[in-house]
Write a structure and sequence with these properties.
Length: 454
Amino acid sequence: TQDCLGEIEASAALNAFVHNTPEIALAQAEVADTRIKAGDAPAMCGVPLGIKDLFATKGVETQAASDILKGFKPEYESTITQQLWDAGSVMLGKLNMDQFAMGSSNETSCYGDVVNPWKIDDRNLTPGGSSGGSASAVAADLCLAATGTDTGGSIRQPAAFVGITGMKPTYGRCSRWGVVAFASSLDQAGPMTKSVRDAAIMLEAMSGHDPKDSTSAELAVPNFEAALTGDIRGKKIGIPKEYRLDGMPQEIEDLWTKGREMMQDAGAEIVDISLPHTKYALPAYYVVAPAEASSNLARYDGVRFGHRAQLAQGDGITEMYEKTRAEGFGPEVQRRVMIGTYVLSAGFYDAYYNRARKVRTLIKKDFEDVFAQGVDAILTPATPSAAFGLGEMADADPVQMYLNDVFTVTVNLAGLPGIAVPAGLDKQGLPLGLQLIGRPWEEGDLLNTAYALE
Ligand code: GLN
């Protein structure tokens, strides 16, 4: 814990941690030490973690990297972080992220950009987003692991951009209680770690039914680490042809081939599959996610949480809402609220929101069909490129940024588990990741398949 606290200070330029909690960390480490000495050490005992700023942490600033929650210190602890403390982990502090988890480059945060520890010629690169602080912190050894959240790829894309492991569990595996809501039907938290084994151990501590989240599943939590046998002989790995994009860089193509060969060498059977509705996933996601976000973000009205705008003489409650929200929400969040309210409005609901929901069902069915044919896992690249330069895409058309999520959003729309694992470097020497998508509730099996790629 002390080493991590030192590294955090020394690496402040990465802008990964936004609130450090050394007193909490040292006190928890002390307790962990006593437990270890007493031979009563749970799985995560003494493991120093960084916590994404989206998780409510009692008495510690929780702002979802937004000015609208300035100074908000929750009176309660999120279920997941509580479970991690109960398992003996240590909180080093809160991690930077895209504002309200909206973004793919960690450039929408009220705390400023996060820097990827990987560089090309001293050029600062994005660590991806929205869990960019988590990714950067784990990759740079500021913590041993971090929590992330994934609504459309925010664990897997940043994990790929910094060369670490990131897993989004099945929707409902982990409680969402106390995690600031972005798009409730898509949001899942998960571990961001240095290895598949760490991901298995941490996911187990984060999982389980929570009576405070009606969408968390009433299922026993398996021992995920025990599933890591390394034996994937006879497993059927599907390669979906729709993920082969026009103009995809050769090195992503090569990475995918390498992954296929590694699976084959480990004794798995490779099969070509089709997920015909894939091309509609991104548009459907960018209707469903903003629709839910516009509803979830209605609560930030200047009354209940955080920031309230300075009012002028004669301003009424409407001006208070308007001024507070205009000042507190960043441009990307405002864009999402506008898209969301538009697609939910009476005149456009059927044309956009309802249609996107139908597309979502078709995407889910594509996966069900493939799994029904005996496919155990699906292998794809995690991202369409390696990390790009900070500022390179932020000023471009936002749709360019949304294209980063092309391989990851399908998993959230279908509620499936997905994992990104580091799979080598591109020709500039930057990390690239592969993604494996698994059957619902079979995270153990998925982790074991990912283990074969390590
Ligand atoms: N990049 C996607 C978005 O901006 C996904 C974000 C996420 O998974 N939280 O919506």
